[in-house]
Amino acid sequence: MRIGLFTDTYCPQINGVATSVNMLKKGLEKKGNIVYLVTVNPDKYEYSIEDNGKVLRLPGVPIKIYDYKLASVYPLKAINIIKKWRLDVIHSHTEFGVGTFARIIATQFGIPLVHTYHTMYEDYVHYITHGYFNWSSKKIVEYLTLFYCDKTNTELIVPTVKACNLFKEKYHVDRDVYVIPTGIDTDRFNRENNKKFNKKSARENLNLKMDDFVILTVGRIAQEKNITFIIDNMKKIVKKCPKAKLLIVGDGPDFDKCKKLISKYKIDNNVIMTGKVPYDKIVDYYLLADIFVTASTTETQGLTVIEAMAASLPVVCINDESFLNVVIDDINGKIFSGSSEYIKDVCMIYNDRKLLERLSRQAKVSTEMYSIKYFASKVEDVYRIAIKNYHRNLIPMVDKIKSMFGGRNK
User: What is the pTM of this model?
Assistant: First the structure.
C-alpha cells in the first residue's frame, strides 16, 4: 500500500505521538509498504523535503504549548507534491493543523481517511483557559473531538480501552472504534540487546551508587503528569528506605516548581532531575533503574510504561484505565489508589529482592504483544477495512449523482 501519515509532531520532537508515528512508519515499511509523511517543520518557518522525498515538512506556527507547532497554510506546492504520491490511504494523527490538511487532501483526491485519537484533550484545557471557563471549554473540546473523530474520517483508531470508552460511553458515538495499542521497538530496550551498557558507569555519572534503589519516572514535567505526587511521597519513602533515589527524566513547565518542592522537603540528596534527554539516550536511564513509577491519569496509553517493562522494570502505577491493560497487579508491577498504597508498594519491592526479580522477569514477557510488527499488522487491517468501506459507500453516492443528471433514463 501507499500510505500517507499526517502529524503535527514527529522526530526529532520527543513525545508520545511522535514516538507512535515513528514506530508505525518503521513497522509499515518493514512489511513492504511505501510510507510518506506530512508534518510540521520544528525549526524554521519554511518547507523542507527529506528522506528521498517521502517526508514533507510544512511551515509551522508556535502555539505556546511546550514546543508544539501547527501548520499554518496549505498551498498548492504541498498539494501537488502529495498528489504525486498516489496514496491509497491517509492516516491522520492529530485533529488540528496537519490533521485538517489530511482531511482536505482526503476529500479533494477521494482517499479513505483513518484517524488515531492520541490525546485526551479535556485534560489539557487548563493550558488555554488558565482555570477560567473550564466547563464551557470542555464542551467545546467535546464538540470538536466529535467533529474531527466521528464525522470526518472513514475509520477511527484509539490506543486503549480508556479512549474507546470516552467515545462510546461519554460521547455516545455509534460507529466502530478499533483499539490498537501503540507498538514500540521492544528490542531496543531489551537488556540482552544492551550488553555493552555499563550500569556502574551510568550510575556514577548521576552520582548514584550500585546499591542505591533507583525509582525512575520519565515524561513531561507538567501538571497533568502528577509528578508532584511522586515527589510529595518521596520524603516519606526516604525515611523507610534510605537508599531509595528518585530519578526524574524530562522537562516541562513545572520543572522549577518541582525543584523548589524537592528543596522544601530537603530531599535533594535523594532526587535527581535530569532535564530534557535526547530520545536516543533515553534507554540508558531505563537500564540503570530498578523500578518505574507513574501517577498520571491523563494518558491514552502511556508509552513510557511499556518502554520500562521492555527494559525489565516493574511498574508501580496509579489505578487508571490507560495502564490496566498493561500492568497486572503483583504479576509485572503494582497498582495503587493513593499515597499510602504507593508508599507501601515501593517499599515492599525495595525490601524484597526476590519480588523485584519476579516482577522484572514478568514485565519483560508482558511487552511481547507491543512489538512494532504486531502494531503495524493491526493498523494495516484497519487500512484495508477503510479502503473497502470507502469504496462501498462511494458507489451509492456516484449512482445518486448520476441519477440527478438523467442517469435513470438510460
Answer: 0.73
